[in-house]
Amino acid sequence: MRCNICGGTAFVDMPKRPNVRCSTCGSLERTRVAALYLNGQDRPTQGARILHFAPERGLSRLLRETAGTGYRAVDIDPGLYPHTSVERFDLCRDIGSLDVGSLDLIVHNHVLEHIECNYSVVLTRLMRALKPEGVMLFSVPILPGAFTDELIAGDRATKLAHFGPSLHVRRFGRDHLQETLGMVVRIPERYDLTERFAEDQLVEANIPQHHWRTFTGASIFRVTRQDLLA
Ligand SMILES: [Zn+2]
């Protein structure tokens, strides 16, 4: 097994997920699934205009090296990313600053569960920011059961007490995937990673088999402007 982002061959445990974190670049299952696309059909060209939210270290480097100056790493809290230069971007307040039809690639993994505003509007505006041939790759934690969505007022301590340390204000549950995300963007009825990538490729990139045919937090949605349903 080999990390398809940095080439590292050693992996360490995450809570309840043995042997999944690349000990060199820190990549996780979802990051490496995204990299399968970005090393393949969705490889950015030099100068491509890219917006990368919550920029993972290895993926950020790969995209910056591939695309050059068109790459922008952004987050609501740039201080969390000492590894790279990150601009502040608040998806709830700054989303209107994105020009329609201006981006070649948008990447956001495990971001939508944190944003404290209407996620469907944010997702729609991100889709509209894509060029006609642009691509968005994204993932959210997907759990068994129902969808819940809750915003509360208060300071950080109040929110930590309410939501716990993850600060997930919404929960994407498999029971309602088509009625939530699936009403904003076209997502597959059933998830099957082996329709796009060979099984030996998935094994080599250390994508555990339980992520191949079930919607999980490692499922990467690949969408274009044509997939915007809202
Ligand atoms: Zn790596």
TrEMBL record:
**Any keyword Transferase?**
yes
Q: Which UniProt keywords apply?
A: Methyltransferase, Transferase
- Pfam families for this protein: Methyltransf_23
* GO MF term list: methyltransferase activity
GO process terms (BP): methylation
Domain of life, per UniProt, equals Bacteria
Indicate whether Methyltransferase appears among the record's keywords.
yes
Q: What is this protein called?
A: Class I SAM-dependent methyltransferase
Q: What taxonomic ancestry is recorded?
A: Bacteria, Pseudomonadati, Pseudomonadota, Alphaproteobacteria, Hyphomicrobiales
